[in-house]
Amino acid sequence: MPLSKGLHLLSELEHTVASLLLQQEVLAKFGELALRSDSLDEILTEGCRLVGKALGTDLAKVMELAPDGVTLLVRAGVGWKDDVVGKVKVKAVEGSSEGFALQTGKPIVSDNILTETRFIYADFLKNNGVRAIVSVIILGADDEPPFGILQVDSRRPHHFNEDDTRFLRGYANLLGAAVNRLRISDRIRSAATHDSTTSLPNRVLFRSELERALSQARLDGSCVSLLMIDVDRFKQLNDALGHQVGDAALCAFADRLVEAMPPPALVARLGGDEFVAILPDADGAVAADHAGRVLDALKRPFSVDRRNVDLRASIGISTFPGDGKISAQLIANADSALYAAKKDGGGSARPYKPALRAEQQGQLAMLRHAHTALRNRWIEPFYQPQIALDTGQIRGFEALLRWHHPRVGLQYPATIAYAFDDPSTAGLIGATIMESALSSLEAWLESGVAIEKLAINVSAAEFRDPAYADKLLNRLASRSLAPDLLEIEITETAFFDPNAGSVIAMLNALRSAGVTVALDDFGTGYSSLSHLRDLPVDTIKIDGSFVSGIDKSGRDRAITEAVLALGTALGMTTIAEGVETAAQAAFLKARGCTFAQGFLIAPALDALHAEAHIHGGSVSLAS
To answer: Which ranges of 376-496 would DSSP assign to H, the alpha helix?
Structure first.
């Protein structure tokens, strides 16, 4: 071999070794960066600089594949004009080098794209003076599409050999591993701070962002408002359509909320059907305006699982600093306002007022009293006699709740009224009254007392137990009590409960067994003639507010007469409550009212005095 040729081969060998050493050095540096950095932009940009250095060029880029699987964005790069990185998008269509690379997974090498005939190359390459390229795909994680394409470019014709291609593929694999590590890390962080169903910030991130917003507001003297948002009647939708549709509905609701909010706002999901929005630099008036826009946006139907779903909301508003100077106070007061909005019937927004807090503290005190009374067995029924107006004979009693406070004495239901809005507590109270009243009824019958009916109030909350009717009939059977001795009293609100269909079915089951049903307080609230026609009701009870006005108000007399006439026409029993004067009793008797109860006859009595009252015989209604 001639000396000159030997020297040339030695020079090429030295160059190859130097290139390989440089490439190994670059791989080591990039590997260290890929493990250390938590910034994807840093990894991609520095990765481009290092790979260009390893292959002897000053141009390199990473193109990220969009979710559509076709569009590639130049996400990072070195050596390019200002209008390339972060701006240029390339379509990986058929015939393009990018399309071929993504479709086949094979490297693309072109020594001169100006004379290349295999592929179509993007115009921005030529505009930047590119002549030669080598590109490989950056793989995604298992079962995921590629992250994109790593491409090294040269502004002069250049031959990228097999060693260069092999190095670039290894380098791209390392880059892909770094990207996947960051994506996994992002998912872990997102799972800790974002709701998995709606992808909104969760309670943790909400708390952090609220503290940040409040800190900024303290510095610049601005306001921050909270909108506490709760989906109305979501549980019923979820139960009726299933959790999958329910989750889809929550996602659609979340999207509508974000769409309705101003750009600085942060919308988060606290859990279940509860959402919240932080409105920086928004006073109470601005927050109320945005709440109104949210409610308007929610009036449009939602399309969920190929069906239209109605999703309305209640909103509570609180504003820093007037409604609270710390986050906990601001959240609690927005919750108070939300509760007031829901109590108003939903579909509305309420700003926080100090009176709301006092009212709710009173309600919580009622709940505590109820729980204490239940725990200590202070609750017992008192019995108010019901008499036949035409004969004065005692028909039976209505069992009315009373409870004994050890210091204050005998208490009325109004002192624990809020407990009846809490389903679990209302159920416990109802069960206590029912058990005690049936025990009294059993004792009276065993002692030979003749009683036609015992009426007991049942709340809508108790009917939420689907087995309520069966349990009640079993109670009667266990005491050998005939079902026709019992009359249950319900108010019309039971039929406005989302569970109304189940309520009606249970009432029908009870009536079939012999239990009668009375519609209590008829003429107040949501009274509807269709209820009397369609619902399983045997008795109408005329509210005492109308009876008390018979002597004074022509309107009350007219309403009372109309209800009595209606009851007679429908063949129903009628009972007037709150009868206090002989004139009222005479008016009612003359118009066909069947029974009456009230202080004219007797107040509510404990079980012992009630039994004595029965032994007293008929009652005279003369003044």
So the answer is: 423-446, 468-478
